[in-house]
């Protein structure tokens, strides 16, 4: 269904975009490569077993990184397996999720250098918190004696596919410190308290303000979309603004809130300790993983590295057709 929708509407949308200034080439290449992904007429390999004679035809994939659910999901699986098998030690880990004030969405979706500095503000705040906790718990002479480990995945959309650049970081749930013998040993710190998570949110907010000031911007003075993007790529700026604001861009309902076929059900949850917000900066650190449970660790990593779109196939027994349901992966 996703392929049919894009194939049906992409030419008209592209033509309209060209009339208004055009789309960046990387957007056009991504979508057009997706439309050719997995189709035999756009390239294939023909395999044949010399012993039994069995033959197999495999279509080429687009191997893109931003949109194609199949190729991005394959990359997700490969990345998670590599991290579990070859990178991460068998020690406790914790997922830290970091989201930003809504007024930053369009700006950070466009300015990757600024986003890198904003993301470093968050990872630096979590690292500082872990080091300070380690110094107090382990009696270290300095926070520099505590060594942290982390990896971060960037997500560009939220559960309803709005533009919402945010980060999922997997931090080792403790620190490495040198034993008297000189060898590094891991020390588990356990779950952070609410006050400690709130402190991370407050530190992150303060660091973001400094980063924006260094770039000549102010957090409270940001518009809906960056001036540079509006000038250089007016079509992309319109798409960013509509996506970030969850409004219809084209058609009879242009400028109105996007209609949803299914409204999300908000479950009632018990109080979450490891969740805090300060100045629009939201930090969540409730999910902990036993590093010895490699299967669950890989599951969490797949979630962190997930594609923006996934497809659920539902078979209809009456007519044999297959229906795809879109969802946030």
Radius of gyration computed on alpha carbons: 23 Å
What average pLDDT do the residues reach?
87
SSE class:
alpha+beta
The end-to-end distance, rounded to whole angstroms, is 16 Å
Number of helices: 9
Largest sheet: 5 strands, antiparallel
Strand content: 15-25%
Poorly predicted segments:
313-329
Morphology = flat
Order of helices and strands: HHEEHEHHEEEEHHHEEHEE
Count of beta strands: 11
Blueprint of the fold:
Layout: H1 2-19, H2 25-36, E1 44-48, E2 55-59, H3 69-87, E3 93-99, H4 105-110, H5 112-138, E4 150-157, E5 163-172, E6 174-178, E7 184-188, H6 194-214, H7 227-232, H8 234-245, E8 275-278, E9 281-289, H9 294-304, E10 310-315, E11 322-327
Antiparallel strand pairs: 1-2, 3-5, 3-9, 4-5, 6-7, 8-9, 10-11
Helix pairs in contact: 1-2, 3-9, 5-6
Description:
A hairpin with a 5-residue loop joins strand 4 (about 150-155) and strand 5. The strands form four sheets. The chain has a five-stranded antiparallel beta sheet. It has a two-stranded antiparallel sheet with strand order 1-2. Residues about 315-329 have low confidence and may be disordered. With about 325 residues, it is an alpha+beta fold. The longest helix has 27 residues, at about 110-140. Helix content is about 40%, strand content about 20%. The chain is built from nine helices and eleven strands. Helix 1 (about 1-20) packs antiparallel against helix 2, helix 3 (about 70-85) packs across helix 9 and helix 5 packs antiparallel against helix 6 (about 195-215).
């Amino acid at each position: 269904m996703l392929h049919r929708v894009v194939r049906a509407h992409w030419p008209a949308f592209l033509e309209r975009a060209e009339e208004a200034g055009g789309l960046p080439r990387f957007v056009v290449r991504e979508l057009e490569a997706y439309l050719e992904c997995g189709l035999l007429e756009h390239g294939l390999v023909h395999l044949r077993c010399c012993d039994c004679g069995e033959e197999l035809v495999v279509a080429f994939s687009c191997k893109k990184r931003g949109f194609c659910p199949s190729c991005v999901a394959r990359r997700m699986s490969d990345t998670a397996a590599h991290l579990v098998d070859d990178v991460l030690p068998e020690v406790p880990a914790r997922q830290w999720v970091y989201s930003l004030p809504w007024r930053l969405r369009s700006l950070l979706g466009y300015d990757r250098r600024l986003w890198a500095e904003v993301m470093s503000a968050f990872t630096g705040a979590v690292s500082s918190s872990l080091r300070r906790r380690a110094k107090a718990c382990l009696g270290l002479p300095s926070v520099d004696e505590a060594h942290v480990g982390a990896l971060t995945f960037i997500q560009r959309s939220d559960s309803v596919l709005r533009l919402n650049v945010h980060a999922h970081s997997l931090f080792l749930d403790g620190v490495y410190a040198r034993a008297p013998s000189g060898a590094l040993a891991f020390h588990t710190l356990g779950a952070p308290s609410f006050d400690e998570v709130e402190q991370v949110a407050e530190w992150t907010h303060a660091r973001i303000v400094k980063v924006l000031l260094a770039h000549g911007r102010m957090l409270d003075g940001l518009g809906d979309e960056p001036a540079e993007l509006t000038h250089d790529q007016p079509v992309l700026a319109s798409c960013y603004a509509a996506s970030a604001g969850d409004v219809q861009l084209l058609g009879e309902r242009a400028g109105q809130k996007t209609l949803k076929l299914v409204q999300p059900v908000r479950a009632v949850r018990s109080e979450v300790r490891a969740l805090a917000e300060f100045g629009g900066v939201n930090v969540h650190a409730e999910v902990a993983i036993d590093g010895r449970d490699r299967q669950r660790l890989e599951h969490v990593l797949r979630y962190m590295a997930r594609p923006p779109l996934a497809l659920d196939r539902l078979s209809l027994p009456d007519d044999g057709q297959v229906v795809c349901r879109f969802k946030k992966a």
